[in-house]
Specification:
Oligomer: single chain
Distance between the termini: 24 Å
Helix content: over 70%
Shape: elongated
Largest sheet: none
Number of domains: 1
Length: 87
């Protein structure tokens, strides 16, 4: 486990999707308020919206499959603990 993984795989994915959504929102806002960089103004908003859409798709998919993902992780942990103990 690392600093970015603090819970179950499904919980981490839900949290990361919200962080990605916030990143997309920040990029969209920055692009809308940047008057001196025409390229970023033109494409930054679209890039931010794409990130938001991906984040929402990840979030929705994880929510729809949350129980399956939690059960899968439990099975993997159980198999790993059996291997570690030699059983």
């Amino acid at each position: 486990m690392n600093a970015f993984s603090t819970g179950s795989m499904a919980d981490n994915l839900l949290r990361w999707s919200k962080q990605l959504e916030a990143l997309g929102g920040a990029i969209t806002s920055m692009a809308a308020s940047t008057a001196d960089d025409v390229s970023f103004e033109l494409y930054g908003e679209d890039m931010g919206l794409i990130i938001i859409q991906y984040a929402n798709a990840i979030h929705d998919t994880v929510e729809e499959n949350y129980a399956v993902m939690v059960r899968m992780e439990q099975c993997i942990e159980a198999a790993t603990s059996c291997e570690e103990t030699g059983n």
